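User: Last request for today: this protein with S-adenosylmethionine, please.
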Amino acid sequence: MTNPWALGDYHEFATEMVWGFGPELVTACTIGGGQRVLDVATGSGNVALRAAETGADVVALDITPENLEAGRTEADRRGLAIDWVEGDAQDLPFDDGEFDVVTSSAGAMFAPDQEAVAGELVRVCRPGGTIGMINFTPEGLAAELFALFGAPTTPTLWGSEERVRELFGDRVSTLVMDRRVLVERHADGPEGYVAFYKRTFGPVVAAYAAASDPAALDRDFHDFARRASRGSPAEYHYEYLLVTASVRGDAPGT
Ligand SMILES: C[S@@+](CC[C@H](N)C(=O)[O-])C[C@H]1O[C@@H](n2cnc3c(N)ncnc32)[C@H](O)[C@@H]1O
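Assistant: Here's the final one, the structure of the complex with S-adenosylmethionine:
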């Protein structure tokens, strides 16, 4: 089966719609020079590129080689050295405690085994290190969009405070969670928004290719885009949870 994330043009999608997530996680995790950082499900390097720009030593991992290739091109353009690694968030190819900071923006949430992902993010982060995630919420517009395309909405459970607490359990000592809103806009109105998603966003490209009635799917997507727009010409508010956690240290009281 084709990997849906390899379809469309993820880098174009990301730079147009979610490019603010990278700097947001870099700031939230106070990433800087001298730190060793892992960005999980990096896509084309949204967080990884920005972390490398601070002088951090960055490894960027994703399951989709096409996205890593786009990231490598972007890193070359910016004169940044990043280690691009193909791999699965559920089974990270790294040693215990290798990283000072482990990030994932709208990425690791898509791996099906959430317990495995939580375990791996904690395992590869050193005691006292930081995990930072951006996850769309189950109550927000992303869950509605996923449902429209027949995709599971379970990834958005990573956007529930209760579920995140359960997933990390007592392996983290501090857990800060903040609900925020991503605004996606399109200059050509809802029609332009739909066309942009159909051309660039892999899971949507895959859903159209697999649809038994693509015309019906198209009607539903246009209805969604007209109904959900909150501004002119087109504006969509996607709620997400910004998560930062400290991995429990060895020292008493940490
Ligand atoms: C919405 S994109 C987010 C990419 C990037 N973090 C960003 O903010 O632009 C989701 C990414 O998760 C990756 N992904 C999905 N499942 C994965 C898994 N099990 N392990 C690693 N990466 C995965 C996809 O290949 C895709 O690049």
